[in-house]
Amino acid sequence: MGGVFDRISKGMRAFENIVGTIGLLGITVLVFVQVLNRYMLHFEIMWLSDFALYMFIFLAFVAIGLTTRENGHTSVEVFVDMVFRNKPKGQKVYGILLLGFSLITVLVFGSPTLHFAKKALQYPQYGTLVRWFNTSWLMESMLLMILLPAYHLISRMYMETMVLRSGKGPEGR
Prior knowledge:
Number of domains: 1
Number of strands: 0
Order of helices and strands: HHHHH
Radius of gyration: 21 Å
Helix content: over 70%
Strand content: under 5%
Mean pLDDT: 81
Number of helices: 5
């Protein structure tokens, strides 16, 4: 089980890192080319702006999964420090409960996202400025980017639970 899980996790990490890197570089190049076209050549290519905007939206979705994977979301730890000051096991349990509540939140948002993704598959939506550009993929990718945080939360809950059960001290964060 551990080998398959590790390979899936490594694959997910590679996917997120590659998509994030290529997307960020792509958006930078698109915006730079658009600025050059607009101000130096006085020629605007309309679909470059739209595509850069759509890629930016997609990368905002990717960032949700990345920050969940890296535990980079903002958290308030005053309560944990007050209640579980010298109780590392209590801090671990509290952390697992927070991960569970986060998973519930992601799943609550996943339901309407699934509905929107199904509609996008059934009825394609096209861009406003560039009529031939199908924008339905944004709704479909939003579903994928809701599933990624759910995956990361489940895997972190599993890992934290295994550490708690093994009796080892809390991991450094």
